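User: Predict the structure for this protein chain, please.
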Amino acid sequence: MNVTVQFLGRVEALTKRKKEEVRIKSGSTLADLLRTLAEEYGGRFRSDIFDPVKGALRSEFVIMLNRKLLEDLKTPLREGDIVVLMPVMSGG
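Assistant: Here is the predicted structure, written as structure tokens:
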């Protein structure tokens, strides 16, 4: 199945892309998608954004799935989902 991943802020700078169509296995979760991206983008992605060994997103990043903020990386994905990976926004 295919999902769209949008990269914002530091993530866009790291991947050098704003958006990417990613093919993953049916029944994959957000964690599976992040592992796929970590394989594609290598060490910087793993060290800066997602730790595939722990299965954890670094605390300074958030994920949105179809416009909803998510914290559970065990959330299953469906064909056509839109995932946004971005740094936490802060203001003052």
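The first helix runs from residue 10 to 15.
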